[in-house]
Amino acid sequence: MASFPFILQVQQGQHQVELSYNGQHLEFDGADFDEPKQSSGCLPCGPSSATAAGRRTIKTVEILNVTIEDGNSLVVAVASPKNGPTKESVLERLLFQVKDMPNAVQWQTNVLAHVYKDIKRGRHFKVLINPFGGQGHAKRLWENTAEPVFKAAGCTYDLTYTTHRYHAKEIAKDLNIRLYDAVLCVSGDGVLHEVINGLMERPDAVIAHKLPVGPIPGGSGNALSFSLLGEDHGNHVTNAVLGIIKGRAMPVDLCSVTQGKERYFSFVLQSFGLVADVDLGTEDMRWMGEARFTVSALGKLLSQKTYPCEISYIPVETNADKLRSAYNHHYNQPVVWADQTHDELDQAHPTIVDQFGGINAPLQSSDGWVTENDEVITAVGGKLPWASKGMMLNPASSPNDGLVDLLIFPKGTGRINGMQIMIGTDTGEHIYHEKVRYMKVKAFRLSPKGPSGYISIDGEHTPWAPYQVEAHRGLISVLSVDGRYARSMRE
Ligand SMILES: Nc1ncnc2c1ncn2[C@@H]1O[C@H](COP(=O)(O)OP(=O)(O)OP(=O)(O)O)[C@@H](O)[C@H]1O
């Protein structure tokens, strides 16, 4: 391979421009990005970030494609942060006139080989769109924002609009997985939950569970998207698409949830009490978008309603400061990708066996179970830091530590403490509040004692009956550029 920097002289109208790629950045020297013609064909129109000297720098991860078009145009397609407070990425097509075609073709080949060094270029996706997710904007988000970015990157796809509940699950169960590099859901977490459960229920789950998934935020909560992209970018469609095009398969744990004779796989939250009420009891507030969760949670915290239950768990760490140290230690370790690790499901172990026996097995004292009979405001197990925008319930969550985060707001919290805790969930600081219990557990079992109420598994309404949860390491993979979730705990 040629050595860095790869340099190409091109023309941009009257300007002579030098394109220089050094393996980390692409630098444009002499370009004038202020003229609208330079972003012709961009969807949406690209921002200007030219400096006085006509220099501009684009990171490798932001480069989608380099194409030669109309015989003598070199087009560099990028998705980079726009100027302004949100720093949301936007698609731009930067257009130059080629002066020396053989050199331009060589430059294109060298740059693309490096930009897509560890990742397949021109991936083919199965795309599922829930036209009714969130506030019903998923179709528009796909057509106006996501699709142009995939096209610019040379990706292709088969598209299906979900027409009914469980449609995504049916599709995942029947999908010819060999055709696709990933399944993408333009939806909330509910459709992703269906896809994951569809893949896990297949007779060939041993192979199917390896098909990566990718969220494109089109629901109300978008917990996976926020966890991947962070508080500021979780709702940004172009950022999500960039992560899908340039990401690698990151191993992500699934929780096995057993209830009666059923088993579900959960990747977001298993909630009881207030959080389940907020999740499932606010359908009539869907018009509010993600604000429905905050508004409803506030009302319910003020009411101080409690829910009797028995909770058993196998604790691993119950101290919030120690959880933060462990989080930071782990966060600084090198990333491990799905193709560099083994999970529990392989030809030698073709089914997932719950180490702690599931809901119908007696609790073994040798496993270290602790049991509490009490009333709680809410008890939530989970595997993702963010539950929605401004609601970081499980800040110590890790994609693949093989453990479940368990959060309990006990009875008697009081309104003032309740308000402080609620404010704390914005940044995850609630876990340090004296009235909050937050821990890592190997498994937990929750038996509701009240007459009726909500239990939510990833936003799905499940029966009012005892359930048991344990995590299984790296059972699915999610496309990610960073190989870890966005930072959710302070250093
Ligand atoms: N065409 C459809 N008609 C009715 N329901 C649908 C349709 N397509 C999907 N669904 C159901 O909608 C549910 C919620 O979908 P989704 O997760 O996309 O949105 P959401 O609930 O707004 O988002 P979030 O889970 O982030 O809160 C899914 O469980 C799915 O079964």
Brief rundown of the structure:
This protein has 491 residues and is of the alpha+beta class.
Architecture overview:
This protein is of the alpha+beta class and 491 residues long. The chain has three domains: 6-115, PH-domain like, CATH 2.30.29.30; 124-246, Probable inorganic polyphosphate/atp-NAD kinase, domain 1 (Rossmann fold); 257-341 and 357-472, Tumour Suppressor Smad4 (Sandwich), CATH 2.60.200. Helix content is 23%, strand content 32%. The protein contains eleven helices and 21 strands. The protein has helices at residues 101-115, 138-152, 167-174, 189-201, 205-208, 223-229, 237-246, 274-280, 291-303, 320-331, 415-424, and strands spanning 6-12, 15-21, 25-29, 55-59, 63-69, 73-81, 89-98, 124-129, 156-161, 182-187, 213-217, 248-259, 262-266, 269-273, 307-317, 370-382, 404-410, 437-448, 455-457, 460-462, 467-480. Strands 12, 13, 14, 15, 16, 17, 18, 19, 20 and 21 form a ten-stranded antiparallel beta sheet that branches. β6 and β7 form a beta hairpin. α2 packs across α7 (237-246) and α8 packs antiparallel against α9 (291-303). The longest helix is centred in the N-terminal third of the chain and has 15 residues, at 101-115. The structure holds adenosine-5'-triphosphate. Adenosine-5'-triphosphate binds at residues 130-134, 162-167, 187-191, 194, 219-222, 459. It holds the Pfam family DAGK_cat. Keywords: ATP-binding, Kinase, Nucleotide-binding, Transferase. InterPro entries: ATP-NAD_kinase_N, Diacylglycerol_kinase_cat_dom, Lipid_Phosphate_FormReg, NAD/diacylglycerol_kinase_sf, YegS/DAGK_C. One of its GO terms (biological process) is sphingosine biosynthetic process.
